[in-house]
Amino acid sequence: MYLEAKKLHIIEEILKIDSDTALSALETFIKKSKKDENLKANSSIREFSGIWSKEEADEIEKIIADSCENIHPDDWK
Fold it and tell me: What pLDDT is stored for residue 15 in this prediction?
């Protein structure tokens, strides 16, 4: 089943729920899922945090500035 079709099916099923307890449980589940996704996404970034010394970070920043932040007018022709 395609992702969008799955979403629509789930929405249809949610609309049929009459129990406030069940809706609260779904809401809690959705909030927890979003939080878990954010933590997972951020954890991959955190793996690299602090692996360079200050000197290494400064050197990389300088290399990027020197090589990537230059505009060469002939490149646009």
Answer: 92
Which residues of the chain are modeled with pLDDT < 70?
1, 39-46, 69
C-alpha distances out from residue 8 to 13, 30, 33, 40, Å: 9, 16, 18, 26
Write down the residue that tokens 């129990």 correspond to.
19
pLDDT at 52: 82
* Whole-number Cα distances in Å, 40 to 20, 33, 35: 30, 10, 9
Eight-state DSSP code of residue 75: G
Nearest-angstrom CA–CA distance, 6 and 29: 17
